[in-house]
Structure prediction request, 391 residues.
Amino acid sequence: MTRHPTPASLIWQSPDWPRLTASANEVATALLQARQRQGELIGQCAAVGLDATAPTLRELWVQEAIATSAIEGEALNPDSVRSSVLRHLGLDSDASTPVSRQVDGLVDVMEDATQNFADALDKDRLCRWHAALFPTGASGLRRIRVGAYRNHEDPMQIVSGLLGREVVHYTAPPSSQMDAQMKAFLSWFERTRPGRKQATALDGVARAAIAHLWFESIHPFEDGNGRIGRAIIDLALAQDAAAPQRLVSLSHQLLAQRRGYYNALQSAQHGGTDVSGWVVWFVQQYRNACDHTGVLIQVALEKSRFWAQHAGAELNARQRKVVQRLLDDGDGGFLGGLNAGKYIKMTGTSKATATRDLAQLVQDDVLFTRGQGKALRYFVNVPGWAHADRS
Prediction:
């Protein structure tokens, strides 16, 4: 038995659809806070320089690809995503890491959304994005209509729950309306592009919020609407910045707030066309995503300073691998600290060699220890990290 939530008017059934609006008074505070944090982040990037921020921006791209798929319940191999990103950037990658056509297709879409932000978003571009996401013509084992709007007669519904006990959260416009619905959306997206006269009254981050909600409410494809909708966010934010760089991983933030994300979308999709509440929620997530990038940049600088400080230490490949892992896991990220057993497992070396390696790292002040005997643990010596406080 399929259960429906308490009846409420669907947003696309409103007589004012698709004229989505947001109250300037309601969203002003959230926008001001987000823009202030964005400005601080831009200043932080400028202060440390392009070379120092480049690894962080690459990592944001990797995080974004993994997160936008994870939101839909699909787990991507991080090494595969990282290898694809590096190849797209023209950098060396691990040739031994297999990269599926699906991963490459997703990275293609994300690259196109940001690098080609000045190009118009039209039906052909969206359909090419969709085809890139589903290179085999199937979603899992199910054949789907690829590179084209949906045309099935059955209602397009957002459903959760076990088979026979499904809950319908939202029903999108019928397939027969796709061309007309999407034509209106794409026309608005082009008219409101930053720099055009019609766009002067609409903040760029608020525009990204409205664009995402509008696209998700139409749900024009059989599958992949979430990933394409978040690529539209990337495109809108790149147009707002008039630059192709990805300064935030908004999908990473949306994944962290996945339940809230779905609830905010579904709440906005039931009712009228004043979507102020959704815009406020979205802008707050954008501000939080800026905070996340700021933390990543700070961590990257700490790693850089750490290696500069220990440039004279003669570390072998095993030692460097383990120390880099400790750094990558961050302040307190390596659960329980490092011990000899973990070192042996990570490097595949003998107990005697592990003991010598660790002793040398402590002697060179790369690591420091806490505890004794079986409780002996090793920590990377990064000033400012909480675990580095040896008082």
